[in-house]
User: Fold these one by one.
Assistant:
Number 1:
Amino acid sequence: MNKIILTNYSRLRLLLFFLPIVLLIIIACGLYSVDCLSTNGYIAVQKDTFLFMNSSVRNYPHILFNLTQFGDAMIFLSFLSIFVIYAPKIWESLITASIFSLIFTVIMKEFFAIPRPAAALSSNTFNIIGERLAGSNSFPSGHSITVFTILTVLMFAFMPYKIKHKVAFFVFVTLLGLLFAFTRVGVGAHYPLDVIVGCIIGYICGLLGTFVTKKYQLWNWIYNKKYYPIFIVLMIIACIIVINRIRIENLFIYYMALISLFITLYKSYATYLKK
C-alpha cells in the first residue's frame, strides 16, 4: 500500500495550490465589493443564508451531531489509526498536515476574532445542537479545516490513475467533506463562509503536509516497530477519552471510533510481538 501512496505523491505538482488560492482571493474580493470585510458586515451579509441552512436541517439533530464529530481530529484520526501499520506514509503526511492546520487555525481565529452565531445573533432565532459556542473564534471553522486536511491527504494518497476515475474520486471526496463540514452550520456553530474558507484552508494544509513529507522524511520512526509501544499507549489514552465521551453523549460515531481503535490496538500488539 505504501508503494501506491508514494507513486501517487510523486505525481503531485505545485499547480494544485493555484485553485484554492484563487478561491480565497475571490471570496475576499467579493466581501470587499459589498463592503463586508468588517465584522458586522461579514455577519450581516450571510445572516439570512445561515438561518435558512440551519433551519433546513433542524429535524435531523442526531445525524448532524454524529457527523459533525468528524471535525474532531481525534475522532476522525481514530478511524485511520490502522494505517500506522499498513500505510505509515499516510501518517507521516497526516501528522505534518495537522501541524499546519493547527497553526493556520490558531492564527486566523486570533487575527479575525469574529463572534460565533450564538454570540452575535439571538439564540432563539436558530437551532443549536450540542454545546452553545459563543466565543470570538468563528472564522474560520476549525472543524472544517480538520475535515479537509485529513480528506485531502487521503484523496491524494489513493487517487486513481485514470482521469475519469480521478474526477469521480475528487468529486466524491469533496462532497463528503462538504457534508461533514456544513454540519457546523446545522448545529449552529458557524456561518457558511466560516465553513467554506475552512474547507479551502484545510485543503491547502493537506497539500502542504503531503508536499513536505514527499520531500523530507521527518517521521521515519513511524516505520520502526520498536516504537509501537508509544502508539499503543497513545491509542489506549484515545480509547479512554472516547469511552468517557460515550458515557457523556453516547453517540454512535464514538462507538465506531472506539472499535477502530480496538482493532488497531490488537494489530499493533500482534505486530510488535512478531518483531
Number 2:
Amino acid sequence: MKRIILFATVLFISTFNLQAQKKKDLLDEIDKLRKELKTTKGELNDAQKKTKATLTQVETMEAQVKDLKETNASLLNNMGSFTELSKKKAQNLEKSLESIQEKDKQLKSINDAITKGDSVKLATLTVLKQALGNDAKIGVQNGVVLITLANTVLFGDDDKSVTVQDNAKSILGKIATALNAKPNLKIIVEGNSNALNFKDKNLNDNWDLSAKQAAAVVRALQNDYKVDPKRMSVLGKSEYGSQSIETSTRIIVDAKFDEFYNMVKENMKNASKS
C-alpha cells in the first residue's frame, strides 16, 4: 500500500513537475511569439511607412511625367511652328536672294552699257584729237565730247557774220572726216554769240545770231562734207550760254540716247535669260 501511495506520490510530483515545465515552456513560447509579433509589427509599420513614402514618390514622379509630357508636347508644337517659320524665312531669303541676283544682273548690264558708251566717247575723243591736233579745243564734259571753235576762227572778225570763212573749212573738213567714220554718233552744233549792236545787220538779237551761226556750221558739214543732216541739230544760246569772254561755237558729239536705252534694255533681257 505504501508502495502504491509512494508511486502515486512520485507520479503526481512527476506529473506536476512535467506540467510546470510545459507551462514554463509554453510561457516562454508565448513570450517569444509576443516578441516576434512586436518585431513583425515594427517591420510592418516600417514597411507601411516605406510604402507610403514610395506611393508619394510615385505620385510625384507621375506628376513630373505628366509635366514632361505636356512640356514635350508644347516643345513639339513650338518646334513645328518654328520649323514652319524657318521654312517661310528660308523661302523669303531665297526670294530676296533671287531678287538681289536679278538686280545685280540688271546693274551689271547697265554698267556694261555705260562702260561701252564711255569706250565710244574715249575712242571718239582720240580720233578727233588725232585729226584736229591743236586746231581746236577738244575735251569731255558731262559725259559728252566737246569741240570748241572760236567764232573768230569760223566767222572772222565781224562778230555778226553768219558766213563760215574759207580758211575755217579745213578744220570743219577734219571734223567731218572723223564724224563720218562714226555714223552712229549724234551731233549738236551750239552757237554762242555776244554782239553788241544790230543796226547794220538783218538780225534781231544774239538769240537770232547764235542760231544762224550754228545753222551755218551744220550747213557746211552737210553740203561740203556730206555729214548726214539727220544726225545733226542746231542750238542757239545767245550771250547767255557763253562761258568765256571770247564767243565760240561748240560741236557736241554724243552717242544716241535711244540706242543707249535699247542697248541697256537688250543687255537686261539677256541677263534675265541667263
Number 3:
Amino acid sequence: MDAVNASEPFSSAESRLRAVPPHALVATAGSLLAEGFGAQDVTLLLADYGLTVLQPVTHLPHTGDPVSAHDGPAGTAFTTQTPVVEVIADTTMERVYLPITVRGDRLGVLSLRVPAASADPATVLRLGEFATALGHEVATAGRDTDLYLQARRTRRLTLAAEMQWQLLPGRGCARREYAIGAHLEPAYAVGGDNFDWSTSADHLTLTVTDGMGQGIDASLLTNLAVSAMRNARRAGIGLADQAALADQAVYAQYGGKVYASTLLLRFDLDTGTVRAVDAGSPQLYRLRATGIDLIELEAQLPLGMFEETPYEEQTFQVEPGDRLVAISTGVHGTRSATGDLFGERALRQILSATRQTPPHETARAVVAGLIEHFGSKDLTSDAVVVCLDWAGRPIDSARLTPEGT
C-alpha cells in the first residue's frame, strides 16, 4: 500500500479504512498515522454507556484501563469537543487527543503521540479530520461486529438495557439549525425510557417515551410504541396520527393494562414552528435569555390506555438561541429523602447553571444532579434528559425583496 502523505487529502486513507475488516480499524488507523505523521501509540478510547469513562480499545475485544470522560486531557477533549495537545516531558514527542464525533454523536477520543516538531495547528487539524473519518467507520462497523459495543461497557448490560440501547438513534445529533444531546440512567439497567429523532431537509421530529413498568416488560412496551411511531412517521403520516396509530398498536397488544407516556415534537427548520403532542408525562422546559419556562401543553392520554384515542396537535414557537430540555417522569417526579420533587427547584438551578455548556453536558449534568438529589445512583425509575439548542435558519433576504427592485 502506498504511504499516506500528511499534506494530501484523506480520501486514500478513508478508502483504506473502508477496505479492512471491522475488527482491524484501530490497527489500520495506527499504520496510516505512522506512515503519514510518524505517529506512535495510537489508541482509540470509546465513551462508556454511562458517559463516565473513556475505555481504550487496545486488544479487541478487550479494553485497557479506562480514563475519566470529564477530567484530564482525554476527558477535556471529549467534553469540549476540541483537540488537546499534551507536552510529554523529556521526549521529543507530544500527545494529541482528538474528539471523535459522528454528526453530533460523541463516540470518544483518538489518542496518539507525534513528533513535537509536527504538532502544529495545521497538522492537528488534519489529524482531526482523520479522527472524524475513523469515527464514521467505527459507527458503520457496529452493524457487523460487537467489538466496539463491547469496548464501551464497564460491566454487563441487563437484557432490558440491551434492547433499549439498540432502539436508540444515538446520544446526539447536530446540524446547522440545531444540536441535540441526550442522556439516560441507569445506563446499564434502563428499561422503559427512550428518546428518538429523525431529520429531513426541512423538519426534525423528536420524541421522548416512558414505558410503564420496569425491566423486560417496560422495554418490550417501549419498543412497540417507538417502532409504531417510526412506522407511521416513515409512511409520511402527521404527528397526531403517529400518536394515534402507536396508541392503537399498544392497546391491541396489551388491552389497556399498560401504557406508554410520550412527548412528540416536530420542528419546522425554516420557521421555528413546533407541532407538539403531549401524550402523557414527559415535561418540556424552554430556556430563553435568562428565563426558564415550563411549556404548558394540553395533557392527552398516554399511548395504549384506551382504544382508539384521538390526539390533537398544538403549536409553539422557538427562536434562535432557545434551549429546550425534555425530561421523563423519572426526572421531574423523583423526590429527595426529605420529599422535595427534583423538578420543582433543583432542576431549574441546574438548567440555569449549565446554560452556556453544550447540550450533551447539560443533559449529563441534569442526571448527575438528579442522582445527588435522590441520594443514590440506584435510581428507582428510569431517567431521560434530551437537550436541544436551536439556531434555526437565517432569514433569506431574497424572499423578502420584491421582484424588480
Number 4:
Amino acid sequence: MTSPPGGSDQGGSTPEPRLLVCARCGTPADGPQPATWTCSVENGVRQYFCDTCARENLRAIEGRLDSPWW
C-alpha cells in the first residue's frame, strides 16, 4: 500500500499540536493553552496572551469588549 504524496504510512492524520506563544511578549506556553492565559480575536485572528501580559493590559482588553458584555 502506498500513501499519497506528502502523506505517511502511519495511518490517521492527527495534526501536530501547535506551540502557543504570547502575542505580546513571545513567551512560549508550557503545554496546551494554560488556564491563566487569555485568548483574544482581533481582526479575525485568534491571539493568546500569557498571564503576565493579560494582567498588565487588562483595562485595554476589557475596553475592546462590546457594550452587551457590560
